[in-house]
Amino acid sequence: MSLVLLFVCAPVAVADDDTWVWSDSNAKAAHDCGKQPVVIVNASTDQLALTGKCTKVSVNGSRVKVTAESIDALAVNGAENAITVDALGKLSITGASNTITWKTALGGKKPRVSDQGSGDSVVAVPAPKP
Prior knowledge:
10 strands
């Protein structure tokens, strides 16, 4: 008697208890960083909404749109990504034509930025007044 096992691969894989890995392209998703504060995105042409406080977010791909409430450390690797963060600590960019906007800095007047790419834009956008 032979046994055949079938596995269905989901676009989300959990690396460990505190890490959420997203690897589905051309999709939309939402994630609560209060449950898994480390986020790894290996995809292209996605729209992601991150709520809560993310400790580390890595975006590896192109044309990924991310909105987030809070990110301690953001790494963007790829091209034409658009990331909007309410509160940002530090930022590392390797790629081209990425746009990162932030409203408030965590731990200072502005986030620490390392940009090894080309044609990237990092812009402070004032929070709307109540």
